[in-house]
Amino acid sequence: MQKLAECVELGKINKTSPFPPQMKGQNGADELTKEALETGLSADQVLAALVEGMGIIGDKFSAGKVYVPNMLMAAKAMSAAMMHLKPYFSSGEVKRKGIFVIGTVFGDLHDIGKNLVAMTVEGAGWEVIDLGADVKSDKFIETIEKHPDCVVGLSALLTTTMGNMETVVKEIKAKYPDKAIIVGGAPLTQEFSDKIGASGYSSNPQGAVKLINTLVE
Amino acid sequence: MKYDKLAINTPEGLMFGNALYPVITRRGLVIGGGSVIPELNFTLPTISINTQTLPVIGEHYRSIISDAIEHARHMHAPGVIFEFETLLEMTQTPAIGIELVKIMNEVCEDNYQKHGFKSEIRLTPNDLREFDRPPLCRSSSYLEAMWELFDKGSLAGGDLLSIESTGGKEIHDDALMMCDIKASVFALSVLGVRDMKMLWSNIVAIAKKNNKIAAGDTACGFGNTAMVLAEKGYIPKIFAAIVRIITVVRTLVAIEEGAVGPDKDCGYEGPFLKAITGTPISMEGKTSACAHFSPLGNIAACCADLWSNESVQNIKLLSGMAPTVYLEQLEYDARLMNQALKSGKATALMLQQLFADSDKSLDPQAIILAPENVIAISEEIVKGENYIDASVRAALKGLDIIENAYRSGQLLLPEMEIVWIDILRQALTEIPTDESRFVEEMLPLLEGKFIPKEYGL
């Protein structure tokens, strides 16, 4: 499982992937996950190893020791491994931590930060539904209706779309008063988050993970 | 490619305040004619934008211009350019944008008539095509609103026409996240270039029809996104520096299509454009910290003909409204540069050198902007057989400059950046410079992410 965690951490997707150079020709997360399940290890144990690998790379990223491409490769390695766990999720044998619905609010097209949060949250064991950018309230509400226990994440990068974020929170809360909603984006502050009735604010992807984990405990 | 030799081939020739082909505005401001002019950029505080709130919004813009001109006159500033970067709703409903231009122009004209104070408005509509993903660059219904704002907005007083166009961005965002220089070159030097040709042939036609100035573009959504990601430590600074170099080739197309400058303030590729074409440029440096941080606070001034603050909200600070505060800062900077120019060539060169030397050893994005390096990189661009070749040549030159500076102790680079020199060099040398071959290679990798026919492919 240590080797599997390492593959995820270093972004080794499968045997044929050239990255990272030092693991060329070795089995990757894809092969090792399949092997682990075939040798009788539980899906929970496998998932724990994957999350551990993502956690290590996530911490390195937060500490400024690796760049986003390293995170993305790790996420790709995790995705390759997760394909083998799909049947276990479908049967309910393995549970994700929860469902996280994320989107950039209407009027705003910025999505790089939002994508990073989505990727980090998924790596932390959540199922992520990414609604994209320029997302209106009704799209969020429609998704909440399908996944009533989800946590919602809203992103905005412009001071002029912060108002739209307030509108989205208001409209979600009108229908789902207890819905957990976290917010993020460069112009945002904790003060703004409190003002608009959001459950919390984070300035970085790892902080978002910690926040939503707290919200479901 | 239209340019096969440099218009300016010495660092002195790139001096701030001086362009080979100055631009004269309607009210007589001479951009690049021997002095630096402030360019004030502003935006609204958090507020809904619609026809109901238009009176309140109009008052914001009216007072921004009025207060700024009053203070500029108090400081004995010779003139100001005001950049009106529209917010989405102002382009989506052109009538809103046009009305706001009219309001601001009335203030400018009133001050010109009463006091002889020269000011001009740069009108920068949004590139709404981004709302479609993948974008419909040529067939988008959003283009109608954009053209209407350019056309009627220019007639309402938006004399300098600009845009932060986004053709190719749908590929480039992912390229940044993966630090994929090949995809970056494709996005900018194949897709971006084609989109710029379409866009700017139209903008230039509107400007000519209305006797206005087709000013220029910026690769803000490409180069500055890279810069901001690098500032946050998300991607290597070397990568951001090389992306910046590649953006030059794309933004150059506006001028090839007839734009005359000044290009947009957030286009840090400006100095390269000035070297290649001799057109005046707008730059932003330390005074853009209100909008974003950068490693280029001083060096950005080296070649600036307009000196800008990027964008500041119309909110009250202790001394006054924020746009007026920034007007003062810009005017002081311009005054210093203009005094250096008045004091003679040696003094101006000394100041230019100080701008460059104070930043260039601290970041690869800065060292490529040192005037001597701008010339060296621009020389590679004009040798290019086509846009891709120009980009690759220039990018490789940029890597050489960065590596030589690092190895000779003249550039500080974190350890984790060093490996990227070879990674990028290898990747760049593998890019086919034949466009058909490059497109053929990239299409399977980018399926569904862009629409080839929307770029004329």
Identify the overall geometry of chain B: globular
CATH architecture of the largest domain in chain A: 3-Layer(aba) Sandwich
For the record, the count of structural domains of chain B works out to 1
How many β-strand stretches of chain A?
5
What's the oligomerization state?
heterodimer
CATH topology of chain B: TIM Barrel
- The total beta strand count of chain B reads 10
Report the mean per-residue pLDDT of chain A as an integer: 92
Q: What is the element string of chain A, with H for helices and E for strands?
A: HHHHEHEHEHEHEH
Please give the CATH class of chain B: Alpha Beta
CATH homologous superfamily classification of the largest domain in chain A: Cobalamin-binding domain
Spatial ordering of strands, largest sheet of chain A: 2-1-3-4-5
Tell me the span between the first and last alpha carbons of chain B. 18 Å
Unreliable sequence segments of chain B:
none
Mean pLDDT across every amino acid position of chain B: 96
> What integer value in Å does the Rg of chain B equal?
21 Å
Give the N-terminus to C-terminus distance of chain A in angstroms: 26 Å
Question: Could you state the order of secondary-structure elements of chain B as H and E?
Answer: EEEHEHHEHEHHEHHHEEEHHHHHHH
User: How many domain units of chain A?
Assistant: 2
Helix content of chain B: 40-55%
Q: Note poorly predicted spans of chain A.
A: none
